[in-house]
Structure prediction request, 509 residues.
Amino acid sequence: MTKWVQVCAADDIEEEDVIRFDHGDRTFAVYRSPDDEYYATDGLCTHEKIHLADGLVMDNVIECPKHNGRFDYTDGSALGAPVCVNLQTYPVKVEDGLVFISL
Amino acid sequence: MESLTIIGAGEAGTRAALHLRESNWDGEIVLIGQEPHTPYERPPLSKTLLAEGIPPPLLSSAEQLQELQIQFLQSSQVAEIDRQSHRLRLQNDEFFPYNKLLIATGASARKLTCTGGEHALVLRNLDEALAFCCLLAPGKHLILIGAGFIGLELAASARKVDCKVTVLEMAQRILGRAVPPEVAEVVASEHKRQGVEIRCDIELDQIQASKSGYTIELKNGESISGDLVVAGIGAVPEVALAEAAGLDIENGVSVNAFLQTSDPDIYAVGDCCSFPHPLYEQQRMRLEMWRCARDQAECAVQNLLGETKEFSAIPWFWSDQFELSLQVAGLPSFAKRVIPRTRPDGVTIYFGLNDQEQLVSAAGIGTGNSVAKDIRLAEMLIAAQKTMNPAELCDPKLNLKKLLKS
Prediction:
């Protein structure tokens, strides 16, 4: 059975922004897109393990705050050097104003 | 273009080779590197390598270079660029014909000129960093000459391994004109808190070697003794080959807006070149910045492949010291006035405006990468050349992203 973990209130993430979510010994990045959809990926850049949540979200792209590696956070795909390994993504749902991710 | 030969396998040279393949170009690529290493990332040398012993990531593995059919010559020194016959002579007297040439020779550490200056180590490449690593040990007293980014990153790294650290700076304050004074002040007080002694406004007389280490004598008669002396007083562009070949030199290998040298078959990128910046009054500048090296490499490659792309990327760099990271976008030296914007978390971003109230720079320092989003947005605002309202800009409630999109 899918295990849903509560992240935060839907309003805690601004539109076109990202927050960091730590759970157990893992860290995730949870996004709210400009068209008000929610997404989740692994929290660390696949290049040098930098927290992506400190990076800038523009449209459906998250950019690593250190070396500008870019990913499409809706499907995790790496968009070019210096990143070449895709991000793992996770299902997200919003219920009663709360955001959950499935691990 | 039939083939491209690249002199220099640092960030810029290697990026150019990789970008050619990313652009699906299948001509011949020769990448010539001086160092006995597969191309690696240079920024970690003064940071994680020293403090945590983590070797720098590779820009490309030897296997990957082979797969991409990039002919990589390591430990190879070019002795001469023969423009007449379009060929290079290597130090071992081998000849390499070239079709188009990319000079990415980088910069080397500036040496101290005072008496005994040869006793000071410098840190620029992996071998120097590894040698330096072996010398650092708890309790050793490290004296750093020059409070620039390299010097201060080394100071922070050395404190992490429990060295005693003294930093000597000739200017009135640390970090010179690269960052606003307020940001330099945050850096200085963090170093002090972490036990680094920083002394500004000093005048160096000479360095003497003794049985137990080195003694630095200052012009005011004072002397300071330590186990190790390192100079971090800037870098000088590697222009010898280009100069001997008769290319125009002006604070680096002089290139035009398209990164082409005075010889149309030769381009230059990275720390070794100076270029006119269209967003900064066409002023000729040379930048020693990781991202600029990459951006220039990609721009030059596109031009070599037939485009006419002006290089106009906004200068950007970062520095990590202790748990703090600072970032600067644009050029603070072009600011006529500085607008501070203090966020609810206490971090202040310093925006620099020119006479037309356009953003020309933004600088900030905070824990981890907490300033990254704002600096990235500021960078895009600089590129957009938008006119700013200073009263609005200092208000942390103003949404920079909305401002950019408006």
